[in-house]
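Query structure, 375 tokens:
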């Protein structure tokens, strides 16, 4: 009887609330049950006619990272209306677990591996009680896109291997770096010359803000903020997407980038990132390259118009193609609310390439027809 009522209530809710016809960046976005979507720092996967939006699931009444409960999943056919599939990877009660309640899970990205037919989730994991010191990449796996995902392991990538673009002379320090004062030009030069890569060589390179990019040839890469967030690393994943091949490179050494998001159009890779100001918004950056391995050319702030210098009060998290539409990419970003993370909202905007650069323009409200307009 109870089940019958809950099905009826859910059906009524779907009828009443399933009415989103456009994207309204930065505002409350209700799911099919009339509840604000809870999938922060998210990523998107498209499988068999359905979009899967994965993100950090926060609980009400708690601030900052204490609000984290796990990774959620929402599904949609049209990108406007979303069904809550629930938490697909939950923090664990067992205090000995790497994903024990109190850990920090950020920026989950799920990809499908065609060879193994598994759904592979990568996310940034910080261990309970250790702040942001673990700086690890974590992986979980599922047989179905809506989970449940099984946590496999977390670790720092590229232990004991130099990046492919590393000069031989960088393998040992040429000056006494221990006395350098942070943020001086000499210190920044030392970072560019591999000081922090050498520091982390034995224990593995840091992996904080991250995304996963799967290329046309099915090769996948973890793109992660490393070296105390000073330098982005691109690390190739193994064919099953569960490990690293140990082939890796650096992007924008000492450039201080977070929140990487990547897409490819007409054979060119584009990346949008943010600066590093915690939960506060800052000016986005953009890059492009003809190869995933670089060289990545810096293109500056992709945002134009009012509040462009603050990425419209948001921070990038992912970029995905609209299915069946050529050159239509959606930029996903978070408008964080650390005092009540569950209320954080989402800024989705269409990306266009103008004069070889990605451009993001604020729209109060838009739908997929906006791609047809000349903006
Ligand atoms: C900015 C990052 O992009 C977020 O994912 C989160 O780690 C916050 N910093 C924490 O301050």
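Result returned for the query:
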């Amino acid at each position: 009887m109870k089940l019958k009522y809950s099905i009826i209530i859910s059906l009524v809710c779907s009828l009443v609330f399933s009415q989103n016809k456009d994207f309204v960046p930065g505002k409350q976005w209700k799911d099919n049950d009339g509840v604000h979507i809870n999938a922060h720092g998210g990523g998107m996967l498209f499988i068999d006619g359905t979009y899967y939006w994965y993100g950090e699931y926060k609980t009400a009444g708690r601030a900052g990272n204490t609000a984290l409960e796990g990774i959620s999943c929402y599904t949609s056919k049209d990108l406007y209306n979303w069904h809550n599939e629930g938490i697909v990877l939950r923090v664990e009660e067992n205090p000995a677990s790497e994903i024990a309640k109190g850990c920090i899970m950020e920026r989950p990205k799920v990809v499908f591996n065609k060879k193994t037919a598994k759904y592979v989730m990568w996310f940034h994991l910080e261990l309970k009680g250790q702040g942001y010191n673990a700086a690890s990449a974590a992986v979980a796996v599922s047989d179905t896109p809506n989970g449940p995902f099984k946590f496999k392991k977390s670790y720092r990538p590229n232990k004991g291997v130099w990046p492919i673009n590393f000069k031989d002379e960088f393998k040992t320090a040429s000056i006494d770096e221990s006395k350098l004062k942070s943020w001086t030009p000499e210190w920044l030069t030392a970072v560019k010359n591999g000081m922090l890569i050498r520091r982390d060589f034995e224990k593995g390179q840091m992996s904080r803000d991250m995304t996963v990019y799967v290329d046309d040839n099915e090769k996948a890469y973890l793109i992660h903020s490393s070296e105390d967030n000073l330098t982005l690393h691109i690390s190739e994943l193994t064919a099953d997407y569960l490990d690293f091949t140990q082939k890796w490179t650096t992007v924008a050494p000492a450039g201080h980038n977070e929140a990487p998001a990547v897409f490819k159009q007409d054979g060119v890779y584009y990346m949008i990132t943010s600066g590093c100001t915690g939960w506060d918004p800052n000016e986005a950056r953009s890059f492009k390259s003809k190869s995933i391995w670089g060289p990545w050319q810096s293109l500056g702030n992709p945002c134009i118009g009012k509040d462009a210098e603050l990425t419209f009060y948001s921070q990038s998290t992912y970029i995905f193609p609209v299915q069946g539409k050529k050159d239509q990419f959606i930029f996903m970003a978070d408008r964080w609310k650390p005092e009540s993370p569950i209320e954080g909202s989402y800024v989705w905007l269409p990306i266009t390439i103008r004069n070889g650069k990605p451009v993001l323009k604020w729209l109060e409200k838009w739908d997929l027809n906006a791609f047809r307009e000349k903006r």
